Voltage-gated potassium channel (Kushneria avicenniae), 353 residues
Amino acid sequence: MSSESHKKHLTLRDRIFQIIFESDTPAAKSFDIALIIMIVVSVIIIMLDSVASLKARYGEIFLIAEWTFTGIFTIEYLLRLYCLDRPLRYARSTYGIIDLLSILPSWLSLLIPGSQAMLVVRVLRVMRLFRVLRLMEFVGEGHLLLEALDRSRQKILMFLMTVISLVIVFGSLVYLIEPVEAGFTSIPRAVYWAVVTLTTVGYGDIAPITPLGQFISALMMILGYSILAVPTGVFSAEVMRSIRRNHYSDEACPGCGHEGHERDAHYCRLCGSWLDEEAEDPRRKEIDDEIEELQQDREALEEKMKLLEQERDGTAASHDGCDETDQRKAPDDNDDPNKRDDPDSNHLPPDQR
């Protein structure tokens, strides 16, 4: 089947899936751009609504806009579940939970009117911004960053452990050197100073006053410049590796909505659904052939069973007919009228009988 004929036979569910989860059509790109705009505007409205003066003047407008966006995002969330073959898998995924949390507080406010705690929960709607980052995956660069972070995870973790060890050692050392009047009243306080100094932030709220303490402080500042370049270089190297081995596609799974499959992948690595929407799943043809073969075997067995039943019924009928014929052809000697009427026949010689 050609791609043109296949597109003509797409159902409404398939078209919704292509618009929401794909990005290779004008409709899908327009949907992504509109979604970004609505997410940004809705978050801006929530931020402006927290300003008391603006809420007093435009509170009603903010409320109408908020419920409008809530309704739109609710419809979008339901459509995402509708167009997937396995909607529960998407609902349990990270982005599915974020989508739900972005609309759930507003609907819960209807059940708990006037609750002040609900205002805190509604701040979770800012998590819609994560969906903007999610759209990076449609382009492919997001996968490069995620892969680079995953490949450099152990190196960055080792770097953080080294930094934590340094700030603890230097903080404890300065705590022993500096007097209490300098502000180093405890080791945690001194560790805080070490973190601020090593990261070259330098708030200035705590500073050593002894020459040895100042020397250690200067040494930590120089060390901080050299240390901060380590994770940047590690991450950059992993990004370059990911670019060289970029093999991800922008296809979304029609079963669970997962993205980030390899370009030569034919099935989803999470749910096993067929990824190519323009071709037929070969497994389905094999399954159909097996089902057809099993149906043919079943029909043959049924025909054989019918023949066996007919043979059994015919054999039983023939046996019954033979018994009745034998009974008719072999009457009892006592039923012969000639023998009953001649009482002396039994006393005659055999040749006269």
